[in-house]
């Protein structure tokens, strides 16, 4: 890939004060982001949080009502013709001809993107292999299963490699094998110079791929950071234990408040006596277990682990909604 296609810039994307309103609904409400070149930046959020609208604005498909966006230093409004040459937007569905075969659709799109017939055949062969479409290469699109159709959507989006790629929930509808194939493709794109901004509903996908994550809630950035930085928001560790007598939970709550204060969250499963407690500081573990013994609470199982990204996401969203 030549240097002209992959500009040298610290920031692939910069956005400041983005606002988008539909009617009386302020879908995006003052979002600011900076995405470093050569990284994977993930946008997380519940359904209706504004993820897709944000991606459409960043990808020049929607104009912001307020704020500005720069792609490798180029303003997407004032220099739209330059910015659009640097980006590729892969939505949840690509416009395909249902009556054409997999290969025929890819050929049409390749030629529209400026590839010669020889270049197109070479690239199509690579993509058909990469996305597991060999066995259905001659099938009409209307005869594909949902999973195969999604693979074709993604293959079409990757025909030409751009410096900045937007992927809106790229692995929705794929089986675990297909998801891993897409992950490998994303890693390879970044390794060869691209920057990827993706939305996803799979927390493990964000944890597997992202260099940085922004959690969007009600059209705003609730929190942003690396996976480790976001996990640190919940504390050092998660303590999982099971008490012998589920009726001891009220005493357990008092011990938690005495040792850990109100900073720690606790989940209790009455049927099993299972308890999950967020530990702000791992050093508090010994004090906590001693207090349990002094309170005559018998623990039959105990374990400590790092918080998961799923727990971080749920905590951020629930805390924001609870004020």
TrEMBL record:
GO terms for cellular component: plasma membrane. It is found in: Cell membrane. It is a peripheral membrane protein. Residues 13-243 form the ABC transporter domain. Transmembrane segments: none annotated. InterPro entries: AAA+_ATPase, ABC_transporter-like_ATP-bd, ABC_transporter-like_CS, ABC_transporter_ATP-binding, DrrA, DrrA1/2-like_C, P-loop_NTPase. Keywords: ATP-binding, Cell membrane, Membrane, Nucleotide-binding, Translocase, Transport. One of its GO terms (biological process) is daunorubicin transport. Its main location: membrane. The keyword Transport applies. GO terms for molecular function: ATP binding; ATP hydrolysis activity. Belongs to the ABC transporter superfamily. Drug exporter-1 (DrugE1) (TC 3.A.1.105) family. This is ATP-binding cassette domain-containing protein. It comes from Candidatus Caldatribacterium saccharofermentans.
